[in-house]
Amino acid sequence: MRRWIGLWLALWAIASLPAGAEGPLAKAEAATLHGTELSAGGLPAYLRYTPDRKPLVSAHRGGDMPGYPENAIETLAHTLTVGPSLLEVDIRRLKDGTLILMHDETLERTTTGEGRVDEVTYDYVKGLYLQDPEGKATPFRVPTLDQVLAFTRQAKAILSLDIKAGVDIVEVARHVRAADVADRVVLITYSHGQAMAFHAAAPEMMLSVSIDSQDDIERVKASGIDPKLIVAWTGLQVRERVLYDAIHAEGWLAMLGTLGSPSKSLDARIAAAGDDTRYLDFLAAGADIIATDRHAAVQAVLRR
Fold first, then answer.
1. Residue 289's beta-bridge partner residues?
2. How many domains does one find in the chain?
């Protein structure tokens, strides 16, 4: 318990800093986190497919679980104590323009507040507490994007940014660059047009791009997007081997989403069956990154 409280206090102090500030994440605390060592501009090489590379885990909404709410700095830190992970988080814009981490359009499900995110200011949001997946209030606050980017740099984390409607990619890119973490960020896109727009706004940043077919591969190759900046999102079901092989032939990693519906997702089916080794079947089928709501379970299987 003392260790948990100490970690929370250290991270609370980090979250209070502006992006780029030297924070109090001491070497002792940092040593407990599985950060990723990268040379300058080294993320494309790290996320490049090779036949002998190790599989990766992407923690959906930062890796929430009882006691750890989604999209919280403390949850990101806890996830990194379990194992090295990509940290997927959601960005929304408040009425006053502040960018925060929040998945929903409204505050009720994940905080002690209420109302639409785009109709309240940071003066209101900063007084709220985040709620965990069971709806229990935690001591943790809603973080701003700048606070999370500062944590990312100090913890040597890698973020996947899900930029919600109404948030300007140009503004997000400006914050990322100001925090000096452009080489620790993957921008999530949902369409070919959005991938093109994001690449135009942030040509140095990596993109998660939907790849469902060979036609999608050819479309991306013809788009002018630097192929070294691509991670292939292959959806929420296991694909045929031929698609994974074609993705790998381009040097791209294939990300499979096991997350989603509490009753129908691959995560839910595996949990119900009680056989976490089934995650290894997805890797054997050709997936390289498991994007999951059960990051601790996947990490445990990978360690074994």
1. 56, 255
2. 1
The residues facing 237 across adjacent strands are none
Q: Residue 132 domain-assigned?
A: no
CA 4 to CA 42: how far, in whole Å? 32
* 68: in domain: yes
Beta strands 158-163; 86-93: pairing state: parallel
Provide the whole-model pTM: 0.90
CATH code of the domain in which 279 resides: 3.20.20.190
Contact present, 234 and 243 (Cβ < 8 Å): yes
Residue whose C-alpha is closest to residue 25's, from 136, 130, 156: 156
**pLDDT single digits (tens) 70-108:** 999 999 999 999 999 999 999 999 999 999 999 999 999
What tokens were used for 146? 């700048």
Residue 65 and residue 76 in contact, taking contact as beta carbons nearer than 8 Å: no
240, 246 contact by CB (below 8 A): no
Distances (CA, A) of 213 to 40, 148, 158, 224, 258: 33, 34, 27, 19, 19
**CA separation for the pair 172, 148 (Å, rounded):** 12
Q: Any idea how long the chain is? A: 304
Per the structure, the complete domain to which residue 227 belongs is given by: 2-18+41-105+141-303
Question: pLDDT digits over 53-73, tens only?
Answer: 999 999 999 999 999 999 999
Determine the angle formed by the axes of helices 145-155 and 73-82, rounding to 10 degrees: 30
Q: What are the structure tokens assigned to 304, written together?
A: 């074994």
Half-sphere exposure of residue 27, counting CA atoms within 13 Å on the CB side? 0
Task: Give a yes or no: residue 124 inside a domain.
Answer: no
Nearest alpha-carbon partner for 162 in 54, 83, 38, 259: 259
Q: How far apart are CA 74 and CA 71, in angstroms?
A: 9
State both tokens at 259. Answer: 């997350």
Between CA 144 and CA 189 the distance in angstroms is 21
CB of 59 closer than 8 Å to CB of 79: yes
Q: Please return the burial class of 24, using the count of CB atoms within 10 Å of its CB with bins 0-12, 13-18 and 19+.
A: middle
